[in-house]
Amino acid sequence: MNPYQAPLNEMRFLLDNVFDAPATWESTPAFAEMVDMDTAAAILDEADKISRELIHPLNRAGDEQGVRHQDNQVITPDGYKQAYDQFAEGGWVGLCGDPELGGMGMPKMLGVLVDEMAYSACNAFTLYGSLTAGAALCINAHGSDELKQKYLPQLYSGEWAGAMDMTEPQAGSDLRNIRTRAVPLDDGSYAISGSKIFITGGDHDLTDNVIHLVLAKLPDSNGISLFLVPKIKVDDNGQLGESNGVSVGSIEHKMGLKGSSTCVMNFDEAQGYLVGRPNRGLVCMFTMMNYERLAIGIQGLGSAQGAYQMAADYAKERIQGIAAGGSPTGSDADPILVHGDVRRMLLTIRTMTDAGRALSVFTGKQLDLAKYGEGEEQEKAAKYVGLLTPVAKAFLTDRGLDATIMAQQVFGGHGYIRETGIEQLVRDTRIAQIYEGTNGIQAIDFLGRKVTGDNLATLKRFVQDIAADVESMAHISNDDKQAVMQRFTDLLKAAETINDLKTARPALINACAVDFLDAFGYSLYGYYWLLMTNQAIETMDSDFAEQKRQLTRFYLAKMLPKADYHLAQVTAGDDSIMSLDEALF
Questions:
Q1: Exposure winner among 98, 266, 518, 541, fewest CB in 10 A?
Q2: Residue 360 confidence (pLDDT)
Q3: Quick check: 1 pLDDT over 60?
Q4: Would you say 191 and 217 are in contact if contact means Cβ atoms under 8 Å apart?
Q5: Are 295 and 434 in contact (CB under 8 A)?
Q6: Burial letters for 106-117: b for 16+ Cβ neighbours within 10 Å, e otherwise?
Q7: What is the pTM of this model?
Q8: Distance, CA of 193 to CA of 213 (rounded, Å)
Q9: Residue 370's pLDDT is what?
């Protein structure tokens, strides 16, 4: 299997030429003296090296060995601990963390690209740092100053890890039914008791402590509160003390991500500390969940990029069959890249992945502006973050799995066996559609809350921005502009109909949400391809620009029409879905 190579030229192009990161950073005080394109390029170069030389070598061996639960300890695969220590020492866990508390303070639109590289290199290893970064973000946003000072420096440094503990056997997507309890103690802390399942990174041997963010209910309350619960108690001087009543019941044996520990966690009167206000735990937890949803979207994107590289390399090397019309070299057999169906698959993966990277960087930019911007710019960015987060999670992971399966198909029978490694990417990526809120739930959130929740106000504003940008593109034909904008016009029309019927037909949103999100995703990617091509023609060399022009041609001809299919499903309504009697299923 060839070593992973990050698409650095594409990444720099998006930052510098498409989304004008330097101007954003220069106008943002939090970044102005900290990062410019030279700094960003250096970080990307080093992240590429770390992903290729440190993380990627763990991928296959970690999958073969997996984690194990032994003597009440979770042990990660050989090499994980040494690699994690080196990864943490480089500051990668706290890359986008608060610099006043030990983080590096880098912009999120840069961080998403680093995340992509790591996920391309090894999904399972990367999850440990991702959960820690998300936990730190939540504590920084909602924790007391005491909790921040006590826990964030060690989380940003990677000395301690973080975990998110929500799900229980009887409470998955509907968290109202959780049974974990928090009893107030005399010193202001709480005794946490209960069990959680499916906890990624719930326990492991990579760090000295794991800091759990646990959802629990206070006595005589149906509300849900959030608590910080360390595995090992931490004294006032930041030193580790005795065990805190946090234990591993078991680990899950999974389809993929075998190097990532997924634990049943038991809390037996473990000492915890309230994060945020009582009964507002979900509000606090959503800070971490939204971070993780984007991160998991990038997991799908990273898998797609890794799969593309493997399949494209294989297609150039694998000799099988002769090109239609005869071999261009007169050989008895040609590389399978000459065959139209193989090219169709590779171009599909490539165009969806490059546009997906644009979505991740743009969403990262909105997160930066929502956090550090001012006035109307900040308000608009916050709304766009809300609009795009479920899309980034669902569309990137759905298409990411599609990409890994399609790449596996390029390998043929060799893709189904362990030798090539592509089947591992299929297994590892499958979970991304399920955890951090299933993609169906993401779609319902998108259509039910983010689109119709404000009667289309945010969606219309977003489309207006796109329309103005498309209109200004000097190097894009009117036909191509019309092709993309017509899809957005049709999308808004369908959204208006759903908005009008949402009260009279309460099942409509749930029944149509996935198709609506997919129609939006394919339309949005059409816009990104116009944008990338226009900027490539204006700012890049002729070879780079020609490649973008050809890829846009493929996308508009072969992929954009998928928006029409999904909109047809939306406009067909919910009657055919909801009318069948339950007894007939």
A1: 541
A2: 98
A3: no
A4: no
A5: no
A6: bbbbbbbbbbbb
A7: 0.96
A8: 13
A9: 93
Q: Is 436 a catalytic residue?
A: yes
CB 174 within 8 A of CB 186: no
Q: Looking at residues 2-15, what average pLDDT do you find? A: 92
Q: What is the pLDDT of residues 384-405, one digit of tens each?
A: 999 999 999 999 999 999 999 9
Of the candidates 1, 115, 123, 133, the one whose C-alpha atom is nearest the C-alpha of residue 47 is 115
CA distance 66 to 43: 30
Burial class (CB in 10 A: 0-12, 13-18, 19+), 554: middle
Question: CA–CA separation, 342 vs 91, rounded Å?
Answer: 41
Q: In this structure, what DSSP letter does residue 335 have?
A: B
Q: What confidence tier does 2 reach under pLDDT thresholds 50, 70, 90?
A: low
- Residues 6 or more apart in contact with residue 462 via CB below 8 angstroms: 384, 387
Q: Read out DSSP for 251-286?
A: E---SS-TTS-EEEEEEEEEEEEEESSTT-HHHHHH
| H helices present in 445-557, as ranges | 457-471, 478-501, 508-539, 542-554
* 3-state secondary structure at position 533: helix
Residues 6+ apart with CB under 8 A from 115: 126, 130, 295, 298, 302
Task: Give me the DSSP letters along 371-395.
Answer: HH--HHHHHHHHHHHHHHHHHHHHH
Q: CB of 136 within 8 A of CB of 155?
A: yes
Query: Distance between CA 97 and CA 82 in Å, rounded?
Result: 23
Crossing angle of helices 375-411 and 457-471, rounded to 10°: 80
SS3 content of the chain, % helix, strand, coil (to 5): 60, 10, 25
Q: Nearest to residue 135, comparing CAs of 211, 203, 199, 196? A: 211
Catalytic, out of 116, 252, 292, 436: 436
Between the two ends of the chain, the Cα-to-Cα distance in Å is 45
Give the integer Cα–Cα distance in Å for 397 and 483: 26
Report the interhelical angle of 281-317 vs 375-411 (nearest 10°). Answer: 40
Question: What phi, psi does 200 have (nearest 5°)?
Answer: -65, 130
- Name the helix (H) or strand (E) containing 200: strand 190-200
**Average pLDDT over all residues of the chain:** 96
Tokens of 371: 């956090």
Contact 439, 418 (CB under 8 A): no
Mean pLDDT (whole number) for 275-285: 92
pLDDT at 65: 97
Quote the CA–CA distance of 571 and 483 in Å, as a whole number. 20
- What is the Cα–Cα distance from 408 to 391, expressed in whole angstroms? 25
In degrees, rounded to 5, the angle at the alpha carbon of residue 556 between the alpha carbons of residues 551 and 559 is 95
How does strand 240-243 pair with strand 262-275?
A: unpaired
